[in-house]
Amino acid sequence: MDFELLEKAGMTKYEMAKNDPFCFFMRSIVAGLYLGLATILSYTLAVLLIDHHIIASKIAFAGAFGIGLVIIVLLGSELFTGNCFTTMFPVYHKRLRFIDLIPMWGICYIGNFVGIALICFLFIKSGVNHEAMNQYLASVVSNKLNFDYLELFIKGILCNFIVCAAAFVGMKLKEETAKTFIMMIIVMTFVLPGFEHSIANMGTFSMTFTALGTEISWSGVWLHMLLSTLGNIIGGSILLGLPIYLMIRPKKI
């Protein structure tokens, strides 16, 4: 049952991207918009609480971010990091080649960027908590861009291992209250330690660039995005996807 569920999901996404790329692109933009809502909530909570209790600020930030994945799963759209997991099952089962996935992943990645960058741009331009938000974003991005290559890569792997586990829970559970609660707890597991989600980082970098422009150095942003994206791909498609495939694949008769 699990194998059929995952392989069907992967094939459906591939066929939609191949046969109706515009629709798939729109679904990817919408996923970016939904994740942008979680970004707005998380950063606003963090800014409001940080002067009162730094631990509470971090927990609130991490606890709120999961609402983005919940909305994506419940309302339906295409998130790049989740697709790294589901679309590998037809590849592992030799119904598709890995190269067949590249155009679909590219459409999804760009669409997610458009959606989350747009809503984060509008959020900053709204002027909410202007000075406090700018100060907080400058601190966050300065820390993100001061990275060790290997550590960042591993943070990307661990992040999408966790995100895809949450997405798998969302596919399996039918009761929406349980689904929402468990998914948000699992997502909190990657946010609180500071693991790196490439699409969420698009939102963070977009907000900060909109707010501060060239006031901070952006020289490392492209390498940061590359390493976190590669880590996300491995975390979802290999670290989680491969052992699950080997565990649930149909047995040869």
What does this structure look like?
With 253 residues, the chain is an all-alpha fold. The chain has a single domain (1-248), classed as Glycerol uptake facilitator protein (Up-down Bundle). Helix content is 82%, strand content 0%. It is built from 11 helices and no strands. The chain has helices at 2-19, 21-50, 54-75, 80-86, 88-92, 98-125, 130-144, 149-172, 176-191, 198-212, 221-248. 47% of the residues are buried.
TL;DR?
It is built from eleven helices and no strands. The chain is mostly helical and 253 residues long. The protein is globular and about 60 Å long.
Layout of strands and helices, then pairs:
Blueprint: H1 2-19, H2 21-50, H3 54-75, H4 80-86, H5 88-92, H6 98-125, H7 130-144, H8 149-172, H9 176-191, H10 198-212, H11 221-248
Family: Belongs to the FNT transporter (TC 1.A.16) family.
Protein name: Formate/nitrite transporter
Main location: membrane
Keywords:
253 residues, mainly alpha, Glycerol uptake facilitator protein, 11 helices
Q: First CA to last CA: what distance?
A: 17 Å
Overall pLDDT score: 94
Structural class: mainly alpha
Oligomer class: single chain
The number of helices is 11
Task: Tell me the helix content.
Answer: over 70%
Number of spatially distinct domains = 1
Coarse shape: globular
Number of strands: 0
Uncertain regions spanning at least 5 consecutive residues = none
Which CATH C-level class is it?
Mainly Alpha
Main sheet attributes: strand count, strand direction, barrel closure: none
What fraction strand? under 5%
Q: Report the C-alpha radius of gyration, rounded.
A: 18 Å
CATH fold description? Glycerol uptake facilitator protein
Written as H for each helix and E for each strand, in order along the chain, the element string is: HHHHHHHHHHH
